[in-house]
Design brief:
heterodimer, A: alpha/beta, 8-stranded mixed sheet, B: 7-stranded mixed sheet, elongated, binds guanosine-5'-triphosphate, binds magnesium ion
Chain lengths: 279, 291
């Protein structure tokens, strides 16, 4: 946008297309555009520069203040994190990144390979565990995921581990039996360590469209989500569906994934996110 | 649903000989929102509604249908036509025929490779599964397990970590071992990763696939046009596979991808098991997108 040019319909259309193209969704886009148009009228805004600021502010206002909290591992020991989401979103890779991050901060980390279903899921997490240099609890392929979660917690308790990360199989949220399995894994964790899991993170693929809202709703119900990680934002997708998810369910984004390596994880920064949404 | 919305728009239309423009424009507003909510790319929605408008304006109000039903029918027919014709087979040309799987990270290429191998085996072919993803931890092992699960031979690569060399050797070996189809499973990659896109192009030049299948997640949003177009521009996609259709995403990505890559949607993934592969049904997809 060039500063100090008068605002015209093109600017507002551009705003609308930018939001739609970022997967913000039709309803929320119309709501943001409506608010911006209202402010242009009320505040008699004439400069494109000022318009740009108003657009950013209105979008930023959709992200609740408390979203800025990251994960405070000192709240519990072991601090147990359950990682969930639909197929292929980046759960296993995200666990590797989180493990690397916290190991780098001097924490002891233990992984639980509770995806006992998918071909080579356990091998994949084991390779990451070896690469990052953290131990892992696993059972045979095809065994009960809840049993793996249970054994991971008991191991963490006896070893005095700081952080436990539990990987689960990808599952489509409209599959009742799979969501029930997840609820059972969660209950077993709670039973083994009251208060756990201390965080349940939904890993959402950054290229996902409005179905992300359905995913968040279903996983919130089955697994009591406390946060999200949005992956693959190193691509061209903007992950705008998270704005609707944050508004409708008040689930904060903790981290974003920006690549396939162990270091490719950034804490979520609402202002930085809004800025990239409009670049 | 869309029919109800159309009914509301048209309830004021009485005794008119043709669908008037005011009604159509209001109907198109509803259609536009429905398609955007279904994740159809906003530019594709614009083109689509323009097309529907042309068809609808001046259409005589047929007495058998309500105007609402008429417009809904125009929308559904147009959507179905754009999504493409009925079963389009795989082009298996060459000795061996080579199928290259390509797409973004996590879209379902490895699983689909297994499904495709089983599908071809059941049709009397002798497929060979080839691991060209040397990057993702345990990707080779994953395909090896997939191959053993569908009882299809797996191309062992030893210490070879050059995807281009692996593909070339596999195709050469396939000839000797009398495999008539080679399925190259490649690593997920971003369409903006120049080096990795070049890698795919080199594999293509070395192995001359008769099918380059763009494997896309059916829950993809607006970005579907960008990635699909880039893969097509750089490689020349011959067919599209939409995965995870057993989910509840409306699947507007199907229309978005089809609009920028004018190639058939050949197959769909409808589950995690190896039998969960189906042909694409444009009529069912049209209904699903419209909600
Ligand atoms: N570019 C990019 N790729 C990513 C990112 N996160 C994960 N991936 C890739 O996405 C693919 C899937 O990652 P996984 O970690 O296996 O995903 P998952 O959710 O565990 O998959 P399932 O267990 O099969 O449901 C892999 O190729 C990863 O390298 C990211 O932030 N950026
Ligand atoms: N429900 C369902 N899951 C699927 C389908 N196709 C693939 N998956 C799952 O999606 C996840 C990713 O599948 P992969 O085959 O590993 O995906 P990929 O494209 O090879 O991933 P990368 O190699 O990392 O790019 C796995 O959990 C699969 O089981 C499908 O049609 N339906
Ligand atoms: Mg996984
Ligand atoms: Mg793969």
């Amino acid at each position: 946008m060039t500063p100090d040019l008068p605002i015209d319909k093109h600017a507002i259309d551009g705003l609308e297309e930018g939001l739609l193209g970022a997967d913000v969704g039709a309803e929320l886009t119309m709501s943001i555009v409506g608010r911006v148009e209202g402010r242009v009228r009320d505040e008699k805004i004439t400069s494109m520069d000022r318009l740009g600021q108003v657009i950013r502010d209105e979008t930023r206002a959709l992200i609740p203040e408390r979203q800025i909290a990251t994960i405070d591992l000192s709240r519990a020991r072991p601090f147990v994190i359950l990682v969930v989401g639909v197929n292929g979103t980046g759960k296993t890779t995200t666990i590797a990144k989180l493990a690397a991050r916290w190991k780098g901060e001097g924490k002891s980390v233990l992984l639980g390979a509770a995806d006992t279903f998918r071909a080579a899921a356990i091998e994949q997490l084991q390779m990451w565990a070896d690469r990052v240099g953290v131990p892992m609890v696993k059972h045979k392929a095809g065994s009960d995921p809840a049993a793996v979660a249970h054994d991971t917690i008991t191991a963490a308790k006896s070893r005095g581990t700081d952080v436990v990360l539990i990987d689960t199989a990808g599952r489509l949220h409209n599959k009742a039996h799979l969501m029930q399995e997840l609820s059972k894994v969660r209950r077993v964790i709670e039973k083994e360590l009251p208060g756990a899991p201390h965080e349940t993170l939904l890993v959402l693929d950054g290229t996902t469209g409005q179905n992300g809202v359905n995913q968040a709703e279903a996983f919130l119900e089955a697994a009591k989500l406390t946060g999200m990680v949005v992956t693959k934002l190193d691509g061209t997708a903007k992950g705008g569906v998270i704005l609707s998810i944050m508004r409708q369910f008040d689930i904060p984004v903790k981290f974003i994934g920006v690549g396939e390596g162990a270091d490719d994880l950034i804490p979520f920064d609402p202002q930085a996110y809004v800025d990239t949404l409009f670049e | 649903n869309l029919q109800d919305k159309m009914d509301r728009v048209f309830k004021t239309l009485r005794g008119e000989a043709s669908l008037n423009e005011w009604h159509i424009d209001n109907a198109l507003k509803e259609i536009r929102v429905a398609l955007l909510e279904a994740d159809v790319n906003f530019k594709v929605v614009k083109e689509f509604t323009t097309r529907v408008r042309e068809k609808a304006v001046g259409e005589n109000v047929l007495t058998a249908f309500s105007p609402a039903q008429q417009v809904t029918k125009i929308v559904r027919d147009e959507l179905q036509t754009l999504l493409g014709g009925n079963e389009v087979g795989l082009a298996l040309v060459g000795s061996p025929a080579v199928i290259m799987m390509a797409g973004l990270q996590g879209s379902g290429k490895t699983t689909t490779s297994g499904k495709l191998a089983l599908h071809l085996k059941n049709r009397g072919k002798r497929p060979l599964l080839v691991p060209c993803d040397v990057y993702r931890p345990a990707a080779i092992e994953q395909l090896r397990i997939v191959a053993s699960n569908v009882k299809v031979p797996f191309f062992e690569i030893g210490d070879n970590r050059d995807p281009i060399d692996i593909a070339r050797k596999a195709v050469a070996d396939a000839r000797t071992l009398l495999h008539d189809v080679v399925i190259l499973d490649t690593a997920g990659r971003l369409h903006i990763d120049d080096d990795l896109m070049k890698e795919l192009d080199t594999i293509k030049r070395e192995t001359r696939p008769s099918e380059i299948l763009f494997v896309a997640d059916s829950m993809t949003g607006q970005d579907a046009v960008k990635s699909a177009k880039e893969f097509d521009d750089r490689l020349g996609v011959t067919g599209i596979v939409l995965t995870k259709l057993d989910g509840d995403a409306r699947g507007g990505a199907a229309l978005s991808i089809k609009s920028v890559v004018n190639r058939p949607i050949k197959l769909v993934g409808i589950g995690e098991k190896y039998v969960d592969l189906d042909v694409f049904h444009p009529d069912r997809m049209a209904s699903r997108i419209l909600g």
